[in-house]
Amino acid sequence: xxxxxxxxxxxxxxxxxxxxxxxxxxxxxxxxxxxxxxxxxxxxxxxxxxxxxxxxxxxxxxxxxxxxxxxxxxxxxxxxxxxxxxxxxxxxxxxxxxxxxxxxxxxxxxxxxxxxxxxxxxxxxxxxxxxxxxxxxxxxxxxxxxxxxxxxxxxxxxxxxxxxxxxxxxxxxxxxxxxxxxxxxxxxxxxxxxxxxxxxxxxxxxxxxxxxxxxxxxxxxxxxxxxxxxxxxxxxxxxxxxxxxxxxxxxxxxxxxxxxxxxxxxxxxxxxxxxxxxxxxxxxxxxxxxxxxxxxxxxxxxxxxxxxxxxxx
Length: 313
Ligand code: XIL
What we know:
The chain is α/β, with parallel strands linked by helices. The protein has one domain: TIM Barrel. Helix 11 links the parallel strand 8 and strand 9. Helix 11 runs parallel beside helix 13. The longest helix has 20 residues. The protein is globular. The site of (3S,4R)-3-hydroxy-2-oxopiperidin-4-yl beta-D-xylopyranoside has 7 residues, from loops. It is an enzyme of class 3 (hydrolase). It catalyses: Endohydrolysis of (1->4)-beta-D-xylosidic linkages in xylans. Its EC number is 3.2.1.8. It comes from Streptomyces bohaiensis.
Protein backbone atom coordinates (compact mmCIF):
# COMPACT_ATOMS: atom_id res chain seq x y z
CA UNK A 1 0.00 0.00 0.00
CA UNK A 2 1.15 3.54 -0.71
CA UNK A 3 -0.89 5.28 1.96
CA UNK A 4 -2.11 4.54 5.46
CA UNK A 5 -5.69 4.66 4.28
CA UNK A 6 -5.11 2.09 1.53
CA UNK A 7 -3.32 -0.15 4.00
CA UNK A 8 -6.11 0.11 6.58
CA UNK A 9 -8.79 -0.39 3.94
CA UNK A 10 -7.11 -3.61 2.85
CA UNK A 11 -7.99 -4.93 6.32
CA UNK A 12 -11.46 -3.40 6.38
CA UNK A 13 -10.38 -0.83 8.96
CA UNK A 14 -10.22 2.95 9.12
CA UNK A 15 -7.16 5.01 9.95
CA UNK A 16 -8.07 8.37 11.39
CA UNK A 17 -6.46 11.54 12.63
CA UNK A 18 -7.47 14.46 14.81
CA UNK A 19 -7.79 17.52 12.61
CA UNK A 20 -7.12 21.07 13.64
CA UNK A 21 -9.22 22.97 11.12
CA UNK A 22 -7.09 26.10 11.67
CA UNK A 23 -4.16 24.26 10.01
CA UNK A 24 -6.08 23.31 6.89
CA UNK A 25 -4.53 26.30 5.10
CA UNK A 26 -1.08 24.69 5.40
CA UNK A 27 -0.40 22.70 2.20
CA UNK A 28 1.82 20.03 3.82
CA UNK A 29 -0.68 19.45 6.61
CA UNK A 30 -3.65 19.34 4.26
CA UNK A 31 -2.05 16.95 1.78
CA UNK A 32 -1.32 14.43 4.53
CA UNK A 33 -4.70 14.92 6.21
CA UNK A 34 -6.59 14.24 3.00
CA UNK A 35 -4.30 11.68 1.42
CA UNK A 36 -3.31 9.40 4.27
CA UNK A 37 -6.37 9.15 6.49
CA UNK A 38 -9.85 7.72 5.96
CA UNK A 39 -11.46 9.17 9.09
CA UNK A 40 -11.19 12.54 10.80
CA UNK A 41 -11.98 13.65 14.35
CA UNK A 42 -12.22 17.31 15.28
CA UNK A 43 -9.40 17.92 17.74
CA UNK A 44 -11.40 20.73 19.35
CA UNK A 45 -13.98 22.16 16.95
CA UNK A 46 -16.92 19.97 18.02
CA UNK A 47 -16.45 20.40 21.76
CA UNK A 48 -19.19 22.29 23.55
CA UNK A 49 -16.90 25.18 24.51
CA UNK A 50 -15.91 25.67 20.86
CA UNK A 51 -19.43 25.37 19.48
CA UNK A 52 -21.43 27.40 21.97
CA UNK A 53 -19.18 29.71 24.00
CA UNK A 54 -22.19 31.88 24.83
CA UNK A 55 -25.61 30.48 25.46
CA UNK A 56 -27.61 30.25 22.25
CA UNK A 57 -24.78 31.55 20.03
CA UNK A 58 -23.40 28.68 18.02
CA UNK A 59 -20.17 29.02 16.12
CA UNK A 60 -20.24 26.29 13.48
CA UNK A 61 -17.41 27.43 11.22
CA UNK A 62 -14.67 25.06 12.37
CA UNK A 63 -16.89 22.00 12.63
CA UNK A 64 -18.50 22.71 9.27
CA UNK A 65 -15.06 23.05 7.67
CA UNK A 66 -14.06 19.68 9.01
CA UNK A 67 -17.22 17.97 7.77
CA UNK A 68 -16.77 19.58 4.33
CA UNK A 69 -13.11 18.52 4.23
CA UNK A 70 -14.10 14.95 5.04
CA UNK A 71 -16.75 14.87 2.32
CA UNK A 72 -14.29 16.27 -0.22
CA UNK A 73 -11.75 13.57 0.68
CA UNK A 74 -14.15 10.65 1.01
CA UNK A 75 -13.50 10.33 4.74
CA UNK A 76 -15.56 9.17 7.67
CA UNK A 77 -16.22 11.64 10.46
CA UNK A 78 -15.74 10.70 14.11
CA UNK A 79 -17.73 13.22 16.16
CA UNK A 80 -16.02 14.31 19.38
CA UNK A 81 -17.70 14.96 21.79
CA UNK A 82 -21.27 15.69 22.96
CA UNK A 83 -21.05 15.41 26.75
CA UNK A 84 -17.74 15.91 28.56
CA UNK A 85 -16.81 17.59 31.85
CA UNK A 86 -13.91 19.44 30.20
CA UNK A 87 -13.77 22.25 27.61
CA UNK A 88 -17.30 23.19 28.60
CA UNK A 89 -18.43 26.78 28.20
CA UNK A 90 -18.33 28.68 31.47
CA UNK A 91 -22.07 29.31 31.26
CA UNK A 92 -22.73 25.55 31.49
CA UNK A 93 -20.06 24.71 34.03
CA UNK A 94 -20.71 27.60 36.39
CA UNK A 95 -24.33 28.38 35.58
CA UNK A 96 -25.67 26.98 38.83
CA UNK A 97 -28.65 25.46 37.02
CA UNK A 98 -31.25 23.38 38.79
CA UNK A 99 -31.30 19.79 37.48
CA UNK A 100 -34.46 20.27 35.41
CA UNK A 101 -32.97 23.21 33.54
CA UNK A 102 -29.59 21.54 33.08
CA UNK A 103 -31.40 18.52 31.69
CA UNK A 104 -33.07 20.73 29.11
CA UNK A 105 -29.75 22.40 28.27
CA UNK A 106 -27.99 19.07 27.70
CA UNK A 107 -30.88 17.68 25.66
CA UNK A 108 -30.96 20.81 23.51
CA UNK A 109 -27.21 20.67 22.97
CA UNK A 110 -27.29 17.04 21.85
CA UNK A 111 -30.33 17.59 19.62
CA UNK A 112 -28.79 20.68 18.04
CA UNK A 113 -25.30 19.35 17.39
CA UNK A 114 -26.07 15.72 16.55
CA UNK A 115 -29.09 16.91 14.57
CA UNK A 116 -27.08 19.40 12.51
CA UNK A 117 -24.55 16.78 11.45
CA UNK A 118 -26.91 13.81 11.18
CA UNK A 119 -26.06 11.91 8.03
CA UNK A 120 -22.44 13.15 8.06
CA UNK A 121 -21.21 11.48 11.22
CA UNK A 122 -20.23 7.83 11.36
CA UNK A 123 -19.46 7.67 15.06
CA UNK A 124 -20.11 10.01 17.98
CA UNK A 125 -18.32 10.11 21.29
CA UNK A 126 -21.58 10.76 23.12
CA UNK A 127 -19.73 10.62 26.45
CA UNK A 128 -16.10 11.29 27.15
CA UNK A 129 -14.11 10.55 30.30
CA UNK A 130 -16.88 9.77 32.79
CA UNK A 131 -14.63 7.69 35.07
CA UNK A 132 -12.16 8.23 37.85
CA UNK A 133 -9.03 6.08 37.87
CA UNK A 134 -10.59 3.70 40.41
CA UNK A 135 -13.58 3.00 38.18
CA UNK A 136 -16.07 5.16 40.08
CA UNK A 137 -17.90 7.94 38.28
CA UNK A 138 -16.12 11.23 37.91
CA UNK A 139 -17.50 14.24 39.69
CA UNK A 140 -18.79 16.77 37.15
CA UNK A 141 -21.54 19.31 36.73
CA UNK A 142 -23.58 16.51 35.16
CA UNK A 143 -22.87 13.86 37.76
CA UNK A 144 -23.67 16.26 40.58
CA UNK A 145 -27.05 17.07 39.04
CA UNK A 146 -28.17 13.63 37.88
CA UNK A 147 -25.89 10.90 39.19
CA UNK A 148 -24.97 8.40 36.50
CA UNK A 149 -28.42 8.66 34.86
CA UNK A 150 -27.10 11.38 32.58
CA UNK A 151 -25.11 8.77 30.68
CA UNK A 152 -28.08 6.69 29.49
CA UNK A 153 -30.08 9.86 28.85
CA UNK A 154 -27.31 11.25 26.62
CA UNK A 155 -27.19 8.08 24.53
CA UNK A 156 -30.97 8.15 24.08
CA UNK A 157 -30.94 11.82 23.08
CA UNK A 158 -28.11 11.27 20.60
CA UNK A 159 -29.88 8.30 19.05
CA UNK A 160 -33.05 10.35 18.63
CA UNK A 161 -31.09 13.16 16.95
CA UNK A 162 -29.01 10.92 14.68
CA UNK A 163 -30.35 7.38 14.40
CA UNK A 164 -27.61 6.39 11.91
CA UNK A 165 -24.51 7.28 13.90
CA UNK A 166 -22.75 4.65 15.97
CA UNK A 167 -22.75 5.91 19.53
CA UNK A 168 -19.57 5.57 21.58
CA UNK A 169 -18.29 6.18 25.06
CA UNK A 170 -14.61 7.09 25.19
CA UNK A 171 -11.97 7.29 27.91
CA UNK A 172 -8.25 7.29 28.73
CA UNK A 173 -6.30 4.88 30.93
CA UNK A 174 -8.92 2.28 30.08
CA UNK A 175 -6.56 0.74 27.53
CA UNK A 176 -5.51 -2.23 29.63
CA UNK A 177 -7.52 -4.33 32.07
CA UNK A 178 -7.60 -2.30 35.28
CA UNK A 179 -10.00 -0.76 37.79
CA UNK A 180 -10.97 2.02 35.40
CA UNK A 181 -11.68 -0.24 32.43
CA UNK A 182 -13.56 -2.57 34.80
CA UNK A 183 -15.79 0.41 35.59
CA UNK A 184 -16.32 0.98 31.88
CA UNK A 185 -17.11 -2.70 31.44
CA UNK A 186 -19.71 -2.65 34.21
CA UNK A 187 -21.29 0.50 32.79
CA UNK A 188 -21.65 -0.63 29.18
CA UNK A 189 -22.85 -4.06 30.30
CA UNK A 190 -25.65 -2.48 32.29
CA UNK A 191 -26.50 0.00 29.51
CA UNK A 192 -26.81 -2.90 27.07
CA UNK A 193 -28.98 -4.81 29.54
CA UNK A 194 -31.29 -1.79 29.77
CA UNK A 195 -31.53 -1.46 26.00
CA UNK A 196 -29.71 1.89 25.89
CA UNK A 197 -28.41 2.65 22.37
CA UNK A 198 -24.67 2.27 22.92
CA UNK A 199 -22.72 0.81 20.02
CA UNK A 200 -19.06 1.21 20.77
CA UNK A 201 -16.28 1.92 23.22
CA UNK A 202 -13.37 4.19 22.36
CA UNK A 203 -9.94 3.66 23.88
CA UNK A 204 -8.02 6.92 23.73
CA UNK A 205 -4.63 5.21 24.00
CA UNK A 206 -2.51 8.20 24.94
CA UNK A 207 0.50 6.01 25.63
CA UNK A 208 3.98 6.40 27.04
CA UNK A 209 6.94 4.87 25.23
CA UNK A 210 7.75 1.48 26.74
CA UNK A 211 4.46 1.26 28.61
CA UNK A 212 2.23 -0.69 26.29
CA UNK A 213 -0.43 -2.27 28.52
CA UNK A 214 0.17 -6.02 28.23
CA UNK A 215 -3.58 -6.68 28.42
CA UNK A 216 -4.44 -4.24 25.60
CA UNK A 217 -5.69 -6.86 23.15
CA UNK A 218 -7.54 -8.86 25.80
CA UNK A 219 -9.19 -5.68 27.01
CA UNK A 220 -10.43 -4.70 23.54
CA UNK A 221 -11.61 -8.27 23.09
CA UNK A 222 -13.69 -8.37 26.27
CA UNK A 223 -15.66 -5.32 25.13
CA UNK A 224 -16.00 -6.77 21.62
CA UNK A 225 -17.37 -9.93 23.20
CA UNK A 226 -20.29 -7.86 24.50
CA UNK A 227 -21.18 -7.26 20.85
CA UNK A 228 -19.81 -3.72 20.85
CA UNK A 229 -17.58 -2.07 18.29
CA UNK A 230 -14.25 -0.99 19.70
CA UNK A 231 -11.91 1.66 18.30
CA UNK A 232 -8.57 3.20 19.14
CA UNK A 233 -9.58 6.85 19.21
CA UNK A 234 -6.68 9.14 20.21
CA UNK A 235 -3.47 7.21 19.83
CA UNK A 236 -0.13 8.85 20.50
CA UNK A 237 3.03 7.49 22.12
CA UNK A 238 5.06 10.11 23.92
CA UNK A 239 8.68 10.10 25.02
CA UNK A 240 11.12 12.42 26.72
CA UNK A 241 12.39 14.95 24.22
CA UNK A 242 14.55 15.40 22.27
CA UNK A 243 13.88 12.12 20.53
CA UNK A 244 16.73 9.89 19.34
CA UNK A 245 16.82 7.13 16.71
CA UNK A 246 16.70 4.28 19.22
CA UNK A 247 13.62 5.66 20.92
CA UNK A 248 11.93 6.36 17.60
CA UNK A 249 12.47 2.72 16.63
CA UNK A 250 10.99 1.49 19.89
CA UNK A 251 8.09 3.86 19.33
CA UNK A 252 7.55 2.34 15.88
CA UNK A 253 7.39 -1.13 17.47
CA UNK A 254 4.81 0.06 19.96
CA UNK A 255 2.66 1.62 17.21
CA UNK A 256 2.93 -1.69 15.35
CA UNK A 257 1.69 -3.55 18.42
CA UNK A 258 -1.31 -1.27 18.83
CA UNK A 259 -2.36 -1.75 15.20
CA UNK A 260 -1.74 -5.49 15.46
CA UNK A 261 -3.92 -5.73 18.55
CA UNK A 262 -6.75 -3.88 16.81
CA UNK A 263 -6.46 -6.18 13.80
CA UNK A 264 -6.58 -9.21 16.09
CA UNK A 265 -10.02 -8.12 17.34
CA UNK A 266 -12.53 -8.42 14.53
CA UNK A 267 -14.86 -5.79 16.00
CA UNK A 268 -12.03 -3.22 16.23
CA UNK A 269 -13.03 -0.91 13.40
CA UNK A 270 -9.95 1.28 13.24
CA UNK A 271 -7.28 3.45 14.75
CA UNK A 272 -7.26 7.24 15.06
CA UNK A 273 -3.98 8.99 15.85
CA UNK A 274 -4.22 12.24 17.79
CA UNK A 275 -2.81 14.73 15.30
CA UNK A 276 -0.59 14.51 12.26
CA UNK A 277 2.86 15.73 13.19
CA UNK A 278 4.84 16.10 16.39
CA UNK A 279 4.58 19.81 15.93
CA UNK A 280 0.76 19.89 15.99
CA UNK A 281 0.54 17.58 18.99
CA UNK A 282 -1.06 18.57 22.28
CA UNK A 283 1.57 16.61 24.25
CA UNK A 284 4.31 19.23 24.79
CA UNK A 285 1.75 21.69 26.16
CA UNK A 286 0.30 19.27 28.67
CA UNK A 287 3.33 17.08 29.51
CA UNK A 288 6.36 19.40 29.63
CA UNK A 289 9.56 17.72 28.44
CA UNK A 290 7.66 15.06 26.51
CA UNK A 291 6.62 14.88 22.89
CA UNK A 292 7.64 13.31 19.56
CA UNK A 293 4.47 11.26 19.98
CA UNK A 294 3.04 11.18 16.45
CA UNK A 295 3.65 9.59 13.03
CA UNK A 296 5.26 12.62 11.35
CA UNK A 297 8.09 14.82 12.58
CA UNK A 298 8.09 18.59 12.90
CA UNK A 299 8.80 18.96 9.17
CA UNK A 300 5.96 16.58 8.23
CA UNK A 301 8.39 13.81 7.28
CA UNK A 302 7.18 10.29 8.07
CA UNK A 303 8.87 8.79 11.11
CA UNK A 304 9.71 5.12 11.70
CA UNK A 305 6.31 4.88 13.38
CA UNK A 306 4.63 5.83 10.11
CA UNK A 307 6.30 2.99 8.23
CA UNK A 308 5.46 0.58 11.05
CA UNK A 309 1.78 1.46 10.92
CA UNK A 310 1.74 1.21 7.12
CA UNK A 311 3.32 -2.21 7.37
CA UNK A 312 1.21 -3.43 10.31
CA UNK A 313 -2.11 -3.12 8.48
C1 XIL B 1 -7.02 17.94 23.63
C2 XIL B 1 -6.60 18.72 22.40
O1 XIL B 1 -5.69 17.94 21.66
C3 XIL B 1 -5.97 20.04 22.79
O2 XIL B 1 -5.74 20.85 21.65
C4 XIL B 1 -6.88 20.79 23.78
O3 XIL B 1 -6.22 21.94 24.24
C5 XIL B 1 -7.25 19.90 24.94
O4 XIL B 1 -7.84 18.71 24.47
N1 XIL B 1 -8.63 13.55 25.64
C6 XIL B 1 -9.58 13.98 24.74
C7 XIL B 1 -9.25 15.05 23.76
O5 XIL B 1 -10.67 13.40 24.67
O6 XIL B 1 -10.35 15.84 23.45
C8 XIL B 1 -8.11 15.90 24.27
O7 XIL B 1 -7.74 16.80 23.22
C9 XIL B 1 -6.93 15.05 24.68
C10 XIL B 1 -7.32 14.13 25.80
